[in-house]
Amino acid sequence: MGSATEGSVTKWLERWRDGDPAALDRLLPLVYADLRRIAASVLRSTPGHATLQTTALVHEMLLRLLGRAPAEYASTTHLLNASARMMRQILVDRARNASRTKRGGEWRRADFAEVAELQIPDGTDLIMLDQALTELEAMDARMAKVVELRYFIGLEVPEVATMLDVAERTAQRDWIAAHEWLRQRLADT
Q: Least C-beta-crowded within 10 Å: which of 123, 138, 174, 180?
């Protein structure tokens, strides 16, 4: 997204937060393509959601966003990071619903070893993964954010470093440490 667009997004975010209902109508077209790209990446890397289309995931995320009071999004990056988190939560919620006996879900735990390749193995228990990410976030929020950006959105380490405004080596160290911690955490359960 260019700096002119970034400035426009920030302006509309501020106006939306300040209560201007028309601001959201102006904001959404500026970020919609990015939201669809993120949703497509999340769905591509998360098996088991074949019935959910990219547009549906974006729209479900937008409904959640609209159902809240306008947040203090400081920038496009902040909005997109929050959107990626909401998409992750939507998929976790869907996994929880599918795993309920009354719904006939049969999610099972799987090895987390494929995380380095940015693929979620078939059968991965997304509820356990979400719990582990929540624990990691409590210990080190930046490491958890690195995992979300790499694992769920599919960004490369240099892109993660740019999004988080850290050195590429820092992002790489965080990724390696988080990957190993999650591997061990999920192997222990």
A: 138
**154 torsion bin: left (phi>0), alpha (psi -120 to 50), beta (else):** left
Residue reference for tokens 């479900």: 60
Alpha-carbon span 142 to 129, nearest angstrom: 17
- 18-65 pLDDT, tens per residue? 888 788 778 888 888 888 988 888 877 776 666 678 888 888 888 887
Question: Which residue type does 113 have?
Answer: A
Q: Where are the domains positioned within the chain?
A: 3-188
Taking a C-beta distance cutoff of 8 angstroms, is the pair 148, 133 a contact? yes
H helix runs in the chain, sequence order: 3-17, 21-44, 54-66, 76-99, 126-139, 141-147, 157-164, 168-187
